[in-house]
Amino acid sequence: MNPAVRYGTPDDLEFITGLERDNLALPWSEEAVLDLLRYDPAGGDRVFKFALVAEGAGYVSVSGVIDEAEIGNIVVAPECRGRGYGRLLLEELENILAGRGIRKVFLEVESTNQRALSLYRSCGFAEYGVRNGYYGEGRDALLMSKELQIREQGGDQYRCDA
Question: What is the tally of structural domains in the chain?
Fold first, then answer.
């Protein structure tokens, strides 16, 4: 059974910084993560950044302005990979973003990360560019985006294909 996805809070700092440190070559600083966790979902800000957490499994971070958003990181604990947690986080994020009027979502992914590329493509993201050497010598970033349909929160319009 998948854990519920919820907004991250400062209580998630240790969990998220641990995921970052243990799974990413360039983890975010504790202060940068804490900044994501200070978000008030009731605030309705036109400029925002926040994290969603699947308890014990992973998290996704996002920032945005007015009607566009950019996914920062999706990190799933190694023992939870391949069990749908990344998809769950992405679907919940898209539902929240569409409900707050976001029309387009952007992300970048290392061109060799086949698991992430497969997830993003199955969820409707399309490539629109490349940043050569972004992750280091010979390690390119693929730039991807997806159009969202603005709607009220609460549906499951953004379920990804299998």
Answer: 1
**Radius of gyration of the CA atoms of the chain, in A:** 15
Q: Is 21 exposed, middle or buried (0-12, 13-18, 19+ CB in 10 A)?
A: exposed
For residue 54, the cross-strand partners are 5, 58
- Decide if 27 is inside a domain: yes
**Structural domain containing residue 119:** 5-147
Give how far Cα 129 sits from Cα of 111, 125, 132, Å.
Answer: 11, 12, 10
Residue bearing the bigger pLDDT, 138 or 77: 77
pTM for the predicted model, two decimal places: 0.88
